[in-house]
Amino acid sequence: MSPLAGWLSGLDEVPDPVFAQRMLGDGVAIDPTGDCLHAPCGGEVTVLQPSGHAVTIRTAQGAEILMHIGLDTVALKGEGFAPCVAVGDHVAAGAPLIRFDLDAIACAAPSTITPVLLLETPGFALVRSREDGPVQVGDAIFALEPQAGATAETVQVTGETVERTIIVPLAHGIHARPAARIRDLLGEHAADVTITRQQRSANARSPVGLLTLAIGYGDEIQILATGPDAAATVETLAALIESGMGEKGHGPAPVAAPAAPVVQAPATLPADGILTGVTAAPGLAVGQARRFRLPEIQVDATSKGAAEEQARLDAACASLTARLDAEIGHAAGPQRAIIEAHRAMLGDADLRASAAKAIQDGASAGIAWRAAIAPQAEALVASGDARLAERADDLRDLERRVLLILAGAEEAPLAFPANTILIADDLLPSQVTAIDPRQVIGLCVERGGPTSHAAILAANIGLPMLVSLGPVLRQIAEDTPLILDAGLARLQVGPSVETLDEARREVAERAARRAVALAAAARPCHMADGTRIEVFANLGSQADARIAIANGAEGSGLLRTEFLFLDRETAPSVDEQAADYQAIADTLAGRPLIVRLLDVGGDKPAPYLPIPAEENPALGLRGIRVGFAHPQLLEDQIRAILRVRPIGQCRIMIPMIAGVDELRRVREILDRVRAELGITEKVELGVMVETPAAAVTADLLAAEADFLSIGTNDLTQYALAMDRGNASVASAIDGLHPAVLRLIADTCKGAASRGRWTGVCGGLASDPLAVPILIGLGVTELSATAAIVPEIKALVSELKLDAVRAHAQAALACATAADVRALAREFTA
Ligand code: PEP
Ligand code: MG
Fold first, then answer.
1. Ranges of each domain in the chain
2. Has 737 been annotated as catalytic?
3. Per the database record, which ranges form the HPr domain (predicted)?
4. What is the tens place of the pLDDT at every residue in 485-516?
5. 274-295+413-506, superfamily in CATH?
């Protein structure tokens, strides 16, 4: 039966000839979605690789099944693998064999695909019983059929005997792949060959036998061959092994005593100590490293009877619900929304039903809760959707909190010394909430994504945070001095005393500048020469609107209405939407509010809007295209916006426009609903410029739109053809790329030719290096994140139009984004 949950396929899919060519035996491959390898059948553990990445089980009938988690995972030296069994153990089918950290393996190994093989065992053949596709642990995947009449070949070879001793130079010793190649090489040689290490011998033609010898780097082995071809066989085999067998990282054969194994760390710190990640929350922090690991929770695995276990689970869930209710009482903004989402997940009927079923089947409350959460979290991770995968953390957070209550353990308060920069493999939302910002001043996470709830919470409490830094983070020792410049996506490890002092001065200067800027933030924003520039804030909720006003925002250039639509079972009604928009408009007290029509799809899924799986979601049904696919939804939203009073405070903005025909379709709906509601006043309708198509046809759009607002996040993604949610290209996605700047210049020119204004509501409006260039290119409205509005206003008030125009022309002539940034730093210095 399947030892893993995941995707089942044939061995041909495995990108390693040893497995694909069945050198070790026939079988299947599973790309896992879970984190535990289970026994595929009952039997004895005959081989467990010292690094814990591969295990062999022998059935009572003598068939040997090898499971090898991921490819080239021997190089991980055990990192990420936690075996639950030892050689000689007898296990039942389904018993856990090896727990593993799937994310760590995915980051560090070429593939997580896991071959499950019937090692060549005479007398058995394998018959697949399941097609390619998803599998769960325990599903039947193949049958072992006894082959009538087949017996182990025991042909006795006679002749001369030749022996040779060699030192193994392979960095990872003789693991599965070299063992398979040795068997292949020996194919036609007329000799019996054994390999011996420390008095234990194995037939060299038996990969399983070789694996049991656990031959490592630097080990001395004896090759002994008997038969007519003995001398040539020994020479060829010794030469093959001494050549390193084409394995990565093999060293020259050590001549003296066996050297310590070459430890291949997942990654090493670069010489300059600078690591790059992905910005989850901007800011600068200078402090020292502290590691954070989730403590293991003891789960009582014995059931005291279904009724008692169900009662324990119900009580634990009720207790957590009460805690979440209490937390909601004193939370605001995104934090409140996230806790509300957790409470909703905890009450999920399917989740509770599957835990109840596991309890009926004999599981304890804790095991049942784990079993209920795991497939849901795995399904989210396996969805291939970065944003959904990030929601798996929320489920794991709930899993942990319920298990803690069941174990009678309190959540330990997180205490750290002052100026701690926390290094973690991952952080759950409740852990970010529990952090005391007087102790922890920054977060660095190995995995994670920039739009996870943990990231949103960090931004909300003003904690600089970098994610996707990778396994190299593990190389940072406790208390190492660090400079975290999350805005620049940089972590500097162990900088010099001078660099640290300079960074501390910069932190102090930023704080002082912010205090001055905040004091002056209430004034309308003008440049030093009197030119009016509107500085607005981007909003997602009424709580954001309050923060925006406190920071001196003069209105909102982007209300991301999707936050009202996501994390819910059904779309909000017209009444609900109208109430939400009205509350935000009231909080802005008459200031303009640009409401963006629903922008879901791509990286922003809504469960009740079934968007079929797409090969290229960023190029598929998203933005206004979703509105056209669901016309009632679009019309309802426009109707709700038109209900807000005073009429005209709300302007409407269309996301992801690619052409003027889309603008016309929305205007038709707007005019019809206005007429129905008897509204005669003008309601402005603008477009977002997020596609290169919109940028280069800005004049055509401006002829019919009331304003243009550039979404630089998407415009950058589409101009550079780099997925904004993909951590591997994240470091190159820079809105100050000359290609993006030229598209912004085109947009401003096109809009001006029709007498329309251009704003920016993407991330560049919050980037102090970008602001002078944007104004120099013709932008007159900037909609930034609320917290940075005072600094942007202070910066604009020091600029002069002539100077920024010249600066913008110089930026357009730069060759690279780095050149533009260097120029911008000089300009603002
Ligand atoms: C943008 O793309 O720049 C933008 C403001 O929209 P969002 O980030 O919400 O996609
Ligand atoms: Mg966008």
1. 6-146, 161-246, 274-295+413-506, 306-406, 525-609+619-801
2. no
3. 161-248
4. 998 889 999 999 999 999 999 999 989 988 99
5. Phosphohistidine domain (3.50.30.10)
